């Protein structure tokens, strides 16, 4: 065993150092208040209700004709994929000549609580895809689905296979009942119908509380202690503030869509069992026959690797590839380990 | 922490104790300020103007409790209904009430959570009783609230059962920490390093407990009863609103459901129109293709016209031939008639010749003029020239 040898003087010095850093971090916070996630300008191409289709504006024209459309999760915002210039999946793809677009789901209001997955998939995504097909003069687009947005993109690809040329999924849950999926474990006994009936929309902040509860000490105490160190330097401090802003930027979840997602995917494991119904259409995931690239984090505690890996066995595509990144869920966008992800996506899309 | 503290107040005090212990007396205030600043910065994107984490968590729930998210307006209205004579339950009371409930959302990561929940339950009961005293609250809601209290008692009992799972929690964390440190060669000389090891060990044990079926069931029961509580609260609010003639949450829900149905119908019609437009486009394209083919087949048309013309020529030729045949027939008939005439003439000539022979001795003076040398019939007139078609 490693002996614990805490020298009193050294410990006092360590505490003093931390105290000094803490004082400095207080001052730094005031200067960093303006740091916001999102580094690339966007142009609004389409608006339906609160939904918007955005184009990332880039100086040089794209070299690849097929548009790349990002489908991010309904929980949290897509800005994490473009957090800041040196940590931006979007920028790396733009630099490689792709025309990148993103679907901005907006912030559901209480009056949006009846919005369901039918509207999200068959109206919002389909409208965006059709718009890009017309705009770019292509029969099908490339879809990049991230986290829950990957599940939506996968479902869309199963419903409209003719409109998707290639599908990339990142940290996307597919098998919602794998060993070690603590989030899934905890929601199995919850009466989702009652929750939606009581709350209308699910408060995004409440979801964050639950996410934090999976690692209560790391995320409620250790993170704050560590942040003091991060705030010593303007660059790392700004990064930390942007991340915090992004984490707390949690839109409420439209009640009906939340109900359908939790029951059909989490509780009934509908993708693996091929039992999902969107609107009045049954989804057959074997209809996904386009090439598929599946990227997941080996240390992801929100979407365990086994959950993402299940994709291979539910789709009908013979052209399936995986990239396993040694990172967690959020590290997929911002960690050093994930630096090769954009190139992996770009080279696969070009192949 | 006192028995009247809400879970959030208890939680905040616990945080203060934590920071205070870590930083000393002055550090506590500094830490609170620091944390408040963090909350302002991090919470701003979501549109919150809170100065504490508790506020940040409470706000959306407060919004959800209210009529279509506008609790503040409702409370002003509520306060303004002076004729009902009840002003004891002000906005601040409702704020506290909702905070109690929000506090119950905290997950039981330790025994403290259950204790907080019990305190919260007591606080909730007190606050609700004050509220229920209002003449605005329909008496019929009493039964629902009694069920809610009973349900909370049962829920918290099952949470108490979870305490068994946390028995020896500290010992298990220590064992895990030792196991974590085992096999490593370097000494732990830093307080921070030891702290990180402890966090890892403590969360590992917590995760083991959270993975059990008992925890899953108790957690589900807890959340479900919390939602039921909110539902009853909402129904009570609806009862008040009905009494004062304001649209209720459930009525708005119906309206939203209808709007959504209309929206789907609109999409169906739009898609139908799009399908029809697609069909028309396809028909138009077919027509254009046909027109193009006609243009491309202009040579064929000429050919057809040429053939038609030739057919006309052929027909005219046929008519001419037919006419010629008719003429030939006439000629043939004429020839037959002529032949008969010739034969008759020949007979007549033969008769004349015989008569001349009889008369020859009588008149030797001249020979017959047009007689053939062979003594046959006279040569026919030239055949009529054939008509050209």
Short key terms for the protein model shown above:
heterodimer; A: 351 residues; alpha/beta; Rossmann fold; eight-stranded mixed sheet; two-stranded antiparallel sheet; 15 helices; globular; B: 389 residues; mainly alpha; 2 domains; 12 helices; disordered C terminus
The number of helical elements of chain A comes to: 15
Structural class of chain A: alpha/beta
Strand segment count of chain A: 12
In total, the number of domains of chain B comes to 2
Structural class of chain B: mainly alpha
The best one-word shape of chain B is elongated
- Helicity range of the residues of chain B? over 70%
Give average pLDDT of chain B, whole number. Answer: 65
Oligomeric nature of the chains: heterodimer
Q: With helices defined by DSSP (H or I, 4 residues minimum), what is the helix count of chain B?
A: 12
Average pLDDT taken over every residue of chain A: 92
Enter the CATH topology name of chain A.
Rossmann fold
Give the beta-strand count of chain B: 0
Low-confidence stretches of chain A: none
Architecture overview:
The complex is a heterodimer of chains A (351) and B (389). Chain A is 45% helix and 16% strand. By secondary structure, chain A is of the alpha/beta class. Chain A has an 8-stranded mixed beta sheet with strand order 1-2-6-3-7-8-11-12, with helices on both faces. Chain A has a two-stranded antiparallel sheet with strand order 4-5. In chain A, strands 9-10 form a two-stranded antiparallel ribbon. In chain A, helix 2 (89-95) crosses helix 15 and helix 6 (192-199) runs antiparallel to helix 10 (255-267). Chain A is globular and about 70 Å long. In chain B, helix 5 runs antiparallel to helix 6 (111-132). Chain B is elongated. The termini of chain B are far apart. The model of chain B is unreliable at 45-91, 93-112 and 367-389 (pLDDT under 50).
